[in-house]
Request: fold
Amino acid sequence: MVLSKSLKLFANKSLFKKQNNHSTLIELISKQIQLRGYQCSIINQRLRKLGDSTEIPTIGIRREDKNVWERRVPLTPSQCEELIKEHGIKIIIQPSTSRAFSEEEYKEAGCEINEDLSSAQTILAVKEVPAHLLLPNKTYMFFSHTIKGQWYNMNMLDTILEKKIRLIDYERIVKEVEIPGTETKTVEERLVRFGPFAGNAGVIDSLHILGERLLTQYGYSSPFISISYAKNYISLEICKYALNEIGRKINAYGIHKDLFPMTFVMTGKGGSVCQGMKEMITQLQPPEVTHKTVEFLTSPTELRALWEKKERGEVTKEDCRKIYVLICGPEHMVRHKTRFNEPFDKFDYYAHPDEYEPIFHETVIPYTRVLLNGMYWNARFPRLITNNQAKQLIDQNRFPLICVGDISCDPLGSVEFLVKTTTISSPVYVNNIKEDKIYDGTVKGEGVAMLAVDHLPAEFPRSSSSLFGSHLFPFIPDIARSFHSMGSPIDTQFKFLPAEIRKAVVTANGRLTPQYEYINRIRGERSKRILVLGSGYVVPPVIDYLLKNPKEICTVTIASDKISTDLINRFGSEKSVNFVNHLNVSEDSSVLNDLIKKCDIVISLIPAPLHPIIAKYCYEHEKHLVTASYISPEMEQWNEKAKEKGLLFVNEIGLDPGIDHMCIMKTLDVICGQKGGKVESFKSYCGALPAPESSDNPLGYKFSWSPIGVLRASQNPCLFLKEGEVVDVNEGSKLMFLNEKVDIPYKGFNFEVVPNRDSLKYIKKYKYLNEKDLKTMMRGTLRFGGFCEIFRVLTILGYLNQKTIIPNGCTSFYDIFCHQLNVDSNDTSFTQLTEKVMNIYNERIEQFFGNATDKCQVEVYNRLKALAKHDVQFAMKGLAKLGLLSKSTTIERPKSGLLLDLVCGHLEKELSLKPEDRDLNFMIHEFVVNYEKEKIKERITSTVCVYGDAKTGSATSRTVGIPVAIAAVLVARDHEVMKKAVGGGGVIGPTSTPLLYEGVLDLLEKEGIKVEEQVETVEEL
Reply:
């Protein structure tokens, strides 16, 4: 501070302006300092060091990117101008169009506008800096939210240490202030703060939420409905005027007697936040109104008395024309465990919090409508209220809380059921504490409306920035000139910093400074860094779920060959989400290697053949891996290696495979493991389809991604057990002929099922099944009626053969169809085409099933023969509607020249799932179980039915993506326990341990993906 004052003293002296020799200048300044009686030992060191350096002290002010509403700045243009002119400091401003102060204002102040801040030794911001944007070996100043070991910023703190950044936290720039009337007791006073603005905005926003919730949730109109969010007012003065108007309405019309008493409780007594809250709540008392519309209470006893008055039925009209406010200090929150009759000593409480017990939940909360929380809290002290205390009060019907305005914004802090912070654009959610449910972005729903905007002063960005900058300004010159000490021992660095700043230095030289080493003890296990490979339609639900679990997941990096603009727009503002574009997994080995090295868990959503490449890097760097794909032989080869290093390579954790296996195992655990039943019949069917109202085409099917997978799957061989006979169909072209109707509890669906590959291998996978007991074992794919008929014709004409080349000379789909039938396209009618197809169709039925001996295929043969004419006619009409018999459409040949790829491209264009369409995922498992001891046989039917919508995403993306994300969170949280459960790790699937399948299913239910079960008696033995 002395140095900056000295330099300012000489700023306008001609000698200072003319002097080019640093040494002479330093001697002159030193003499002037001595004349004024200052101690010069440290100052001379600083000045001498400055004299040896030609580098100009440079401050960088970075753009705020935590969220779009953060428009505040650490220094205003006028404050920057003074630093430049009076202190010789260079200032670089990173461009931003969202600041409350324009780039032009900073230019006029003499600042440089530049994206690159690397030449600045000291970088200022308001809120946290994304970890990947931190520049190494710099001094950073911002609100870091790390000093209480906040788990959501520990990854950032780790990066700060790794990059040897000196972190100065505004929150810890304090001075000791002596308590009046004492000789030895002092308290810390924050010197750099946004003052009362957080309290100002918090009250306004809370009143708005109160008014809206009273109306929409409880059906009461109130004066508070007329107040808006603070962001919508042009200034603080206008806000105060609006509150005056609300006070006039309270005076004139009152508040409904059912809502008496309308009680507000504030915490943080004596702090600037509480002062700001009180300033605004007082505006509800208009100056000209003599009736008291705001009554300040002095104790919880007075608070309780209001409710007792209501119970006695003594409430008057005058009582309803006011609100009641209690400002609580620690004396209202705790009491000494043994000294009940002694006066409360808050300084003893601060020194020995373990000797005190909480009372706030008993004496205050049961009588509070609105809690405005502005207190500082850390884990040494009792909470205001815990989750368990809140649940007990709810059960006792003693929990009248409507709204919490938590200006402290401390998740899981003094108000434990504040589970997350909010933003100015989405400031509120409802916490159903009793059922542990969160309703985002709404004031409706059972529970408590929670406001927890962690940047409330940003609602008054210019005013709050000016005040903040005026607090920070006096420290900047010394901090800016201290850059030369970076890398020196911390004691040396401190010599070049004011005493108030030394207390705020959290990290230096890659280590926590001694006063903050406690963070390592309280931070707990580090949350995990997730790398998501892929950017397809499944990715958004994955990211959404990961972001809901910041305690387990600290950062998410999305890496892909092409990341869509929609994905960047959706998650680009999230502080914990990073993007790596143009990544080619097969070719960019060094980039991929570096990405996997720096993460903890990889979620691979790229094509399954590439998973073994990812497994290789995960093995080398000892990272866990999660995929939704089948366990291929190539992936299985990593089992023992992964187990050696204690790694979990989790696969088949999507919809099918995934949810299907998990539902099955959970049911089998009960009917076989617990009840001792024997499964005689097991059927498992699943389908990803358009919703019925969107199935408006002959196939009854639409695509939200490339159809190639569906087309190829239609030619798979299959193996299953039906009524005691093994059905082995090793010729894939027969598959579409094996469909049969499905009888399900929901009669409105016209479902058919097609066998899905090898069903018998799952007998061993589901450990309770026994070949001796089983008579039927079949897994299948659901389709709407009509799908298979059309695919049969495409199959017999070679459209789905992966070797069929588009015939030369064919320019339309009609030409191709005629060529495949070996007829002249210029001289063949539709009726003749149909007859020709009918002949081939009947021939193929005879070829496929004419010599069948097993009961199943004999039944298929009889059914196909009986319906052949109908099925072919339906298929031909369907092909025409799909454009596959079009004469007018000129085909665009794919590069491969394959007919399959041509059909794929056409169907993708014609049958894509439109934005207005909904999709449907339907899954059904049917068990017929014999309970021999009870002499009873039951049919257990489990169903999962999920619809997509515009808000939450498609059903398929959610049922694939959310289980993958849940599995990653479970691995992050419980990997040690899970490893033990599966024998040390390895390549595992969804049925490997109940920890996985029960854990995923339980959490899926909270996301609205629920298993419904029906049980009926089939036969009494």
User: Anything to note?
Assistant: The longest strand covers residues 678-690.
